[in-house]
Design brief:
53% helix; globular; binds the ligand Nc1nc2c(c(CN[C@H]3C=C[C@H](O)[C@@H]3O)cn2[C@@H]2O[C@H](COP(=O)(O)O)[C@@H](O)[C@H]2O)c(=O)[nH]1; Queuosine salvage protein family protein
Length: 306
């Protein structure tokens, strides 16, 4: 995703609150002796998988809702993934395009076995409807057709998803410029790649183009590793669990600098150790570290993008 790399690099070079610390980056890479620990996709064993188009539908709906869990301290991604799986095992048509268009908040809560209002619930419903309507209008109701239309290119898939589904257009304005981050659109491509083990619906000749998925866990891990350095003001705000406004300089810098840090890590792995690693693999390693550390302090932004 050239536009993600280029616009994130611009943010990093104009950043006021966040810096990528190259010497710490080198230390981290040396510590692991240039080998990114391998983390299996679905290491948690929570995802639906049947090796067919229903898996694609599942992953698309999952990534349409893959954002903002932190406002409810008991809710997390695992819950969403495993309850959507349970819903499909119980009723194979639960995520059909016509059904997606008719879910109400209480019905979604019931589907996810969640006892109270979900964070950003109205947005989740609006996005489910958007996915159902556009899948029906342009892709015969099936996310699998969306994937077939991308010609085995992850870049085309991300572009196609963003073009058809406004809820996936994860971008910001930073100092007047448009910055592209595309977290959920890119993670959809990566989830297909991971679930189908790079075969069939998961084969993309350009999977190396995908960047990390700028969420609230990976930046917190990079900060803990010392690779991201925050200003005193930003550090105190995050540690005090203050909310950071969506689209603020601080928020965009946190996300963009995380992308840049991992791209630099990738370059270093190649230059120093001759290793070619995908950003997706680094992402999964960092994310797995983060979710296994419940005391990790992450930034809190109300957003449908991550
Ligand atoms: N960068 C990055 N961010 C990711 C994921 C995933 C899940 N990926 C699945 C794919 C294969 C694996 O086996 C995973 O199961 C979720 N998130 C983000 O984390 C946050 C949720 O955190 P918590 O509130 O603690 O559940 C939220 O912003 C969510 O969007 C990832 O892989 N990379």
């Amino acid at each position: 995703m050239e536009e993600v790399r280029i616009s994130s690099a611009w943010v990093a070079s104009h950043s006021n609150h966040v810096k990528v610390d190259s010497s710490e980056l080198e230390r981290v890479v040396d510590n692991i002796q240039g080998s990114i620990p391998k983390v299996e996709w679905n290491f948690e064993g929570i995802h639906y998988f049947d090796n067919g188009p229903l898996t694609v539908q599942y992953l698309f709906v999952l990534d349409a809702l893959n954002f903002c869990f932190w406002p409810d301290k008991d809710l997390d991604y695992n819950h969403l993934a495993s309850e959507l799986k349970a819903a499909l095992l119980n009723d194979k048509s639960a995520l059909d395009a016509d059904r997606l268009q008719s879910y109400t908040g209480p019905q979604l809560r019931q589907l996810l076995k969640w006892p109270r209002v979900l964070p950003l619930e109205e947005e989740r419903i609006r996005l489910l409807h958007e996915v159902g309507q556009e899948l029906e209008r342009s892709f015969g109701g099936e996310a699998a057709n969306l994937v077939k239309a991308c010609g085995k290119s992850a870049v085309s898939l991300v572009t196609l998803v963003a073009r058809h589904f406004p809820g996936f257009r994860d971008h910001s304005l930073y100092k007047g410029r448009q910055v592209f981050l595309y977290k959920r659109a890119q993670i959809f491509a990566a989830d297909l790649w991971g679930a189908f083990k790079g075969q069939g619906y998961g084969y993309f000749y350009d999977i190396s183009s995908v960047t990390i998925f700028a969420d609230y866990i990976v930046p917190a891990v990079l900060r803990q590793l010392g690779v991201l350095k925050y200003s005193l003001e930003l550090s105190s705000s995050i540690d005090a669990k203050n909310e950071i406004s969506p689209g603020s300089e601080q928020e965009v810098e946190i996300r963009a600098c995380s992308i840049v840090a991992v791209e630099k890590m990738r370059e270093l792995l190649e230059r120093k150790f001759g290793k070619q690693v995908l950003s997706v693999e680094i992402d999964l390693w960092l994310w797995a570290i983060g979710v296994q550390n419940p005391s990790l302090k992450h930034h809190r932004t109300l957003s449908i993008y991550y």
